[in-house]
Structure formats: C-alpha cells, structure tokens
Amino acid sequence: MSTFHVLLVWALVQAIPFLAVSILLSDCAYPSGYGDGSGNCVGVADVSLKPQRREADENENIFDITHKFTPHTPVGDSTEGIGQFLTLLTSMKNGSDYNFSEMKLPVHSGTHVDAPGHMYDNYFDEGYDVDTLDLRVLNGPALLIDVPRDKNITAEVMKSLNIPKGVRRVLFRTLNTDRRLMYKKEFDTSYVGFMKDGAQWLVDNTDIKLVGIDYLSVAAFADLIPSHLVLLRGRDIILVEGLKLDDVQPGIYSVHCLPLRLVGAEGSPIRCILIKELKAISRKSLRLDGRVSAEGWVQDIIFIEGLKLDDIPTGLYSVPLRLVGEGGSPIRCILIK
C-alpha cells in the first residue's frame, strides 16, 4: 500500500467520530435560542447544556397561556396542590437504558378543560367526554379582554364589556391574574368567576362558544354549581380554566387549545397557546417555491373563520403538556388543512 493510501485510511479513521456526531445531531429539536444558545445542537457530554423555558417566542408572536404542572399546581379543595404526580419507574442512574415515568394527574388541575359530563350525570353516562369536544371551537380567533377588577362576572358586568355579536371565543382576564392565584398551591375560594346571572346573560345574548378564565373554575365559588349548569347545559360551550394570562396584551389572537383524548373523562389537562396578529399578508404570498409560509396562513386563520378548510394551507399543531422535570409527555396533534 502506498504512502498516499495509508494517509487516506488514517484520515478517514480520524474523521469517523466527527461524522458520527454530525449524523446524530443533524436534525436539531432545539432551534435558535435553545440548547447552548447559539442555535447549534449540543451533545450529551456538554456540561453547559441548560434548557430554556419560554412563555413566548423571541418575536412575541406566540404566547404560552398554559401553567406548568409541578407538585404545587393548585387543584380544588386542596391546600397542598396536586402533590407528586410523576414517578420515575425506570432510571438510567439505576442502570436502565432509558428514563421512563408514570403520571397520575387530577383532570381538573392546572390549565384544563371541562366536558359536559362534568356537571351533568346523564351527559356523563351518554359519553359526552373530552374526546367529544369540538376542535373547531378550541381553535380559532379569540378575544382577550380585561374584566372589572372589583367584582364577579354578573349580567351587569357582561353588558358593560360590549362583546360584539359573532365573537365565538373569549378569554376573561380578572383579578385572579393580578393576585397570581394560579401560582399558589392553596385553593382560594375568593377567586373571581361567573355568577349564575352572568352565565345566563352570556348564553342568551352572545355567540360565545369558548369561555376561558384565569383560575380553576369559570364559576364563582358562591355560584359554583348553578353557573356551570347554565354554561354546560347546551353542550355547545367549552370551558377552559386555569389560563395563564399575565404578560399578554388584550386584543385579538388565534387561540389553539388541545386536550388529551381521554375517552370517558369529564375533564382533561390542556395546552393552550395564543398566536397574535402578524402583518397583513396576501394569499399569493403564502407560497414560495412550493412551500408554505406558516406565519402567513396562521394570520389568515385569525380573520377568516368561515373559510372552507380546503382553502387554507395545511399546518400541524403538536401540543404536549407542560410537565416540568419530565422527559416525555402525552401530546395532542391536529392538522389544519
């Protein structure tokens, strides 16, 4: 073998480790702003690896309005939160080839959704569970509004908000956000919510089909059952509770909320995000060399609610739960065509 061939073989052998690292890290799951902060993927041997947890993307176009699940996440009638909800069944530190956890979580804790069977036993028996909730209601244009801070949501308050007809999704930000109640492990019965007359006014005088609020219940504690019964009776209004609405400006957004497909469950943890209005964009600018501009079609969803689905470019929403300290999560995925 010539000297040239010897040197060539030596060079290839030396390059194998670098080629292997390049292949393993070719598809980065942590784009710019994640991983090591440079936009480059980092290997497992990098001691500087520090994941970032974000409430909004770097351009503040996407807002995470879901509270993290931790042992201190509040749940009704508890002073200690949900407690330890993750159990590491197999651990790499103990010799396993992988980490594998089990999750036990109350379905009405943290940011979650109510199904009609939550308050109506006949609906529960008939199968009106979270798997029957309409994704068209849980995804689309939404109005985030501030509620007067000194009272529960009564019929008088609802009238004063002047919510236009045709608005189908409203997120109500109340004194609960100012008091940071969702950050406290103790359940607080003094939270702000709907009184029965306020719930009835919403049903009778608006087109709202998604009601979102910033504590564990849309119904004020004094009218806990009556308000729920009014809102859930028709099975066409979806209640999203425990939303994280701090640091988000009032206005029009596109909301995307995805519960788990828990067959038989009357509630579910839910992951919700807001996508705010981007610059105006024409339908022609949606495509470039046969590709789809995600920002473009998301912007159109905000304003074109009655558009036929086959007129909108396909987009994928994959939304895991916010499980702090966990290496995996149940996830809900939908395609919007």
Helical segment count:
8
Biggest sheet: strand arrangement = 4-8-7-6-5-9-10
**What's the gyration radius in Å?**
24 Å
**SS elements, strand count:** 14
Q: Tell me the distance between the termini.
A: 60 Å
The helix-strand sequence is HEEEEHHEHEHHEHEEEEEHEE
Mean pLDDT: 80
Q: What structural class do you assign from the helix and strand content?
A: alpha+beta
Helix content: 10-25%
Proportion of residues in β-strands: 15-25%
CATH class of the largest domain: Alpha Beta
CATH superfamily label of the largest domain: Putative cyclase
Principal-axis shape equals: globular
- Which topology of the largest domain does CATH recognise? Glucose Oxidase, domain 1
- What kind of sheet is the major sheet? 7 strands, mixed, barrel
Domain count: 2
CATH architecture of the largest domain: 3-Layer(bba) Sandwich
- Uncertain segments are 15-43, 278-314
Topology (elements, then pairings):
Layout: H1 3-24, E1 62-64, E2 86-90, E3 100-103, E4 112-114, H2 121-126, H3 135-138, E5 139-146, H4 155-161, E6 169-173, H5 175-178, H6 196-205, E7 210-213, H7 224-232, E8 238-241, E9 251-259, E10 267-276, E11 287-288, E12 291-292, H8 294-303, E13 315-320, E14 331-336
Parallel strand pairs: 5-6, 6-7, 7-8
Antiparallel strand pairs: 1-10, 2-3, 4-8, 4-10, 5-9, 9-10, 11-12, 13-14
Helix pairs in contact: 4-6, 6-7
